[in-house]
Amino acid sequence: MKDRNNIFTVGISVIGLLLLVCFLSVLPAEVIMAAETDTGTTDNTGGLPDLTGTDGAADGLQELNIGDNTLSVTYDDGNGQVNGALRIMITLTLISLAPFLLMMMTSFTRIIIVLHFTRAALNTQTAPPNQVLLGLALFLTLFIMNPTFTRINEEAIVPFEAGEINQEEFLDRGLEPLRAFMREHTMTKDASMFMEISGIEWDGTLDGIPDSVLIPSFVIGELRTAFIIGFIIYIPFIVLDMVVASTLMSMGMMMLPPTTISMPFKILVFVLADGWNLIIASLVGTFFGSG
User: Fold this and answer.
1) Span between the terminal Cα atoms of the chain, in Å
2) Contact assessment for residue 183 and residue 214, using Cβ atoms and an 8 Å cutoff
């Protein structure tokens, strides 16, 4: 639990750093001009336009507002695109949110929980380490989500880069493959629970529910499935612990921890049964309908 808290702390720090860079990238460049002081008759306006008087005030203010110290948004002026600074801000914001989207809207949650249960059942503490489990879960996620990512690229990214669709259509087309994936692995009772809580009328199908309901319903279903798989993984190792504990008690070795003796036998049985192959194949198969 402590290792996972450290991982989340580092993740939050990285996200905060990205948001800081995001805001710094769009801050206007301020030009500060110091007025020259002299004992004689000098112009102490520092080169700024003269705003005294009623006729030249508006023109002077307009001159002050031109330059690099403004951030303008250009929309629907022929191409419907935002300016470069705002696009950089949006891109960095999406990058900072990418880890959460990866965990909540893909197969990553189920995979990482099952791998954690496997390590806990083996009682090997930090072997494999968190970095290995996260890397394995990431690559398995990319493997499972490859058809979905391919659809997003073909239906949203490629037409958007070619200028065939605008940004609103790009978001709708890019989100639809993810919605289709989540609908396939979402239980109706979970969606019904969130719809009742939000007070939204529902026709009973997953096609018409909003994203604010579909995403938490999908996450709840992933947690349920991951814990069921984890329980099944635990069963043979619990039996082995019971056998070792009974053997030690019959031999009168009451002070020797059974887990210390059972761990090498767990590793031996796991390796002889090719456990990683069985677990990974069965886990990936749950997303393709063969597990």
Assistant:
1) 29
2) yes
Q: Where are the domains of the chain?
A: 1-25+61-97, 106-288
To 10 degrees, what angle do helices 211-250 and 108-122 make? 10
**Between the CA of residue 187 and those of 178, 182, 216, 219, what are the distances in Å?**
16, 10, 11, 10
Task: Give the pLDDT confidence of 16-71 residue by residue, as tens digits.
Answer: 555 554 544 444 444 333 333 444 444 444 444 454 444 455 455 455 444 445 54
> Prior bond to 128 cis, omega within 30?
yes
Determine the distance from the C-alpha atom of residue 129 to the mean position of all C-alpha atoms in its chain, rounded to a whole number: 21
Helices (H), 164-254: 167-184, 188-198, 211-250
Q: What CA–CA distance (Å, rounded) separates 24 from 16?
A: 12
If one counts every other C-beta atom within 10 angstroms of the C-beta of residue 148, the result is 18
Measured CA distances, 6 to 1, 130, 136, 201 (Å): 9, 11, 19, 41
